[in-house]
Every structure is written in structure tokens, then in C-alpha cells.
Amino acid sequence: MLFVEKSVFEQLIAAVEMVPEESCGFLFGQSGDSSTQICKFMPVSNVSPDCKEVRFEIASRDFLVAERLAEKDNLELTGIYHTHLIDSAYPSETDRMSAFPNFSYLIISLPNLRFSEMRFWRLNSNNQFEEEVFEILN
């Protein structure tokens, strides 16, 4: 089970709404035996050489920065988020092919550049996405 702090949810939505290309970044938190609490996010530039309205790519140096930030703040790098401007919050085949195991993937759907829905996903042992249950904490 994932828990997202309400302030993180609100700040994240405010950061990605009205951005005319896929936004992306990292999620940080603390993991327990059966749950993870997400308490921070870090936006990064979409460096995709392809059409940024439907593709995103994170630079390798941004992964290093995220790992250092997690260590500095005594947090775990728990996942990656990105937006879909046209599609729903379901992962594409491109999303699946570029995903890492043991990460949560948050997809935020933004039709007309406005928040519609968000869903979390994780790769299973068959390299397929399974939806993760989440709750927003007040």
C-alpha cells in the first residue's frame, strides 16, 4: 500500500498542470514491511529527443542527483512520476519497456492540461505492470 502526503499531492499537481509536454521526476519516501509513504518529489527536465508531448526521458545525471538527495534527506528513492497529456493514467508499452523493478510509477493524466486522474504501477515478476493501491493522507 502506498500513502501520499496531501501536501505532496497538491504541490505535484500544481507543478505539472498546464505544462504542454510530459513532465517527469522522482518520488521519495520511507518504506515499511507492507507500505510506503511518499513525502517528497523532485521534478526534472524531460530530455526526450522525440515528441515530448507523448514521450519522456530522464537524464542519467538526474538519477545521480536524486540518489544523493535521498541519502542526504535520509529517504528512499521510491519511484518515478510522469504525465500523460492525451492518454489516461495507464502505462504504455514504452513505459513498461523503460521501467525498473522495485520502483513505483505514478502516471498523472492531464487532458487539456488539467488533472484528471492518477494511478500507481509496479512491475511484477513477469515484467508486466500491476496497479498499486494508494491513499492520500490528510
UniProtKB/TrEMBL annotation:
CDD domains in the cross-refs: MPN_like (cd08070)
Matching Gene3D superfamilies: Cytidine Deaminase, domain 2 (3.40.140.10)
Domain JAB1/MPN/MOV34 metalloenzyme: 1-134
Keyword Flavoprotein among UniProt keywords: no
Domain of life: Bacteria
UniProt cross-references to Pfam families, sorted A to Z: Prok-JAB
Keywords annotated in UniProt: Hydrolase, Metal-binding, Metalloprotease, Protease, Zinc
Listed name of the protein: M67 family metallopeptidase
Organism, scientific name: Algoriphagus aestuariicola
Classification of source organism: Bacteria, Pseudomonadati, Bacteroidota, Cytophagia, Cytophagales
